[in-house]
Design brief:
- By secondary structure, this protein is of the alpha/beta class.
- It has helices at residues 38-46, 93-102, 117-128, 175-190, 207-211, 241-248, 256-269, 310-323, 328-342, 353-366; strands at residues 11-12, 36-37, 52-57, 59-72, 79-92, 106-114, 136-139, 145-153, 160-167, 194-199, 218-222, 236-237, 274-278, 284-287, 294-296.
- Strands 7-6-3-10-11-12-13-14-15 form a 9-stranded mixed β-sheet, sandwiched between helices. It has a 4-stranded mixed β-sheet with strand order 5-4-8-9. Strands 1-2 form a two-stranded antiparallel ribbon.
- It is globular.
- The model is unreliable at 1-11 and 13-32 (pLDDT under 50).
Length: 368
């Protein structure tokens, strides 16, 4: 870490890796300086409440059903759980919205939910937080995707996920709903500093919709069809490593040189200004034109408590930071901090502006 005399000038840097990581090759270039000014990051976070972000995507309800293991069933070799509690949280694009709200931003969500219990819960949740939900359609033609995770544990032990049941629509979003989503998205995009596309493959977000928006800047988190967003006006994307592997039908593993090749290739294929690949316990890799690949180590512990929805937090903070005027490297650093914070929480969690500021100030003080 490099430090100057004043707190606002403290720098945070990725570790120097001159010897090269496992799997690197002679042509692989690691950035020697991925440092940023922590005071500058704090200024960016302070500007979050002045930003407006449009989120277009697939809204999901995450349910968690907790139970205490009581015995093994006589009917089948399965555990019987004594129900403790059930909890619901926004998931998918709704989780990105929730993170943005807790970071202080004004959010314009656009998508569709069903006229069902899941849809009602999501809308009620956001109304209670003061979110403008006029861009979220509610229709009997649609089913709210609901992911129910069953957690089991003994008394005084940590609960473990033992089963997940997903309820999803069996058809594509009807054409009339797609048209209404596009109309609402174009209107919201005009009033936003950035548009975040959260594509979980459920149909509310699509490459064709992205091409029709023409916002100031547009970020992408696409679960299944990253490369289909070619020539769609995306500014930057934040895929995880498995999504890059799926896009190019090849495993990266510990071969950082291969990650470098695929990351640069994806950035070029999508005509992006920047690509950030999230790598779990291995941190992040940042790809920009005319820059060597820069690697950020994971912030905090490399043993997460719960990674559910962490990618939504990363894209939310990354997008919000860009809207506030961050460089791509600065936005990646802030997203890295946020991801490290949120994976230490249970369930589908968010990071708050206060938590992000506290983490930055802690590191600034530690390096005095």
């Amino acid at each position: 870490m490099k430090a100057k005399n004043k707190k606002t000038d403290v720098m945070v840097a990725a570790p120097h890796a001159a010897a090269g990581p496992r799997g690197s090759h002679p042509g692989h270039n690691l950035a020697k300086d991925a440092s940023v000014d922590l005071g500058r990051l704090l200024d960016l976070v302070a500007a979050f409440p002045q930003q407006t972000i449009c989120v277009v995507g697939d809204f999901v309800l995450d349910e968690f059903v907790s139970g205490e293991i009581s015995r093994v069933s006589r009917e089948a070799p399965v555990l019987i759980l004594r129900h403790r509690r059930s909890e619901s949280y926004p998931g998918g694009a709704a989780n990105a919205v929730n993170n943005l709200v807790d970071l202080g931003a004004r959010v314009l969500p656009v998508g569709v939910v069903g006229d069902d219990p899941g849809g009602h819960k999501l809308l009620e949740y956001f109304r209670a937080k003061g979110v403008n939900v006029s861009g979220i359609l509610q229709s009997s033609q649609w089913v709210t995707t609901t992911k129910t995770r069953y957690l089991a544990g003994w008394t005084h032990t940590t609960e473990q996920q033992v089963l997940r049941v997903d309820r999803e629509p069996e058809t594509e979003v009807p054409a009339n709903l797609q048209a209404q989503i596009a109309q609402k998205a174009r209107k919201a995009a005009r009033g936003a500093g950035a548009v975040l596309i959260s594509d979980y493959g459920l149909g509310a977000a699509s490459p064709s919709l992205a091409r029709s928006l023409h916002p100031k800047r547009m970020t992408l988190d696409s679960r299944y069809r990253l490369l289909e967003y070619r020539n769609s006006g995306i500014t930057a994307a934040t895929p995880n490593e498995p999504e890059i592997e799926a896009a190019y039908h090849s495993r990266v593993g510990t071969d950082v040189g291969k990650l470098d090749d695929y990351g640069q290739r994806a950035r070029r294929d999508l005509s992006l200004e920047a690509l950030v690949v999230t790598r779990g316990k291995d941190g992040m890799a940042i790809f920009e034109p005319n820059h060597p690949t820069r690697h950020l180590p994971v912030h905090g512990s490399d043993t997460p408590v719960d990674v559910t929805g962490a990618g939504d937090t990363v894209i939310a903070v990354f997008t919000l930071a860009l809207a506030a005027g961050a460089t791509y490297l600065e936005a990646a650093h802030l997203a890295n901090y946020a991801g490290g914070i949120v994976v230490m929480k249970r369930r589908t969690a968010t990071v708050t502006r206060a938590e992000l500021e506290a983490a930055l100030r802690h590191d600034a003080t530690a390096d005095q």
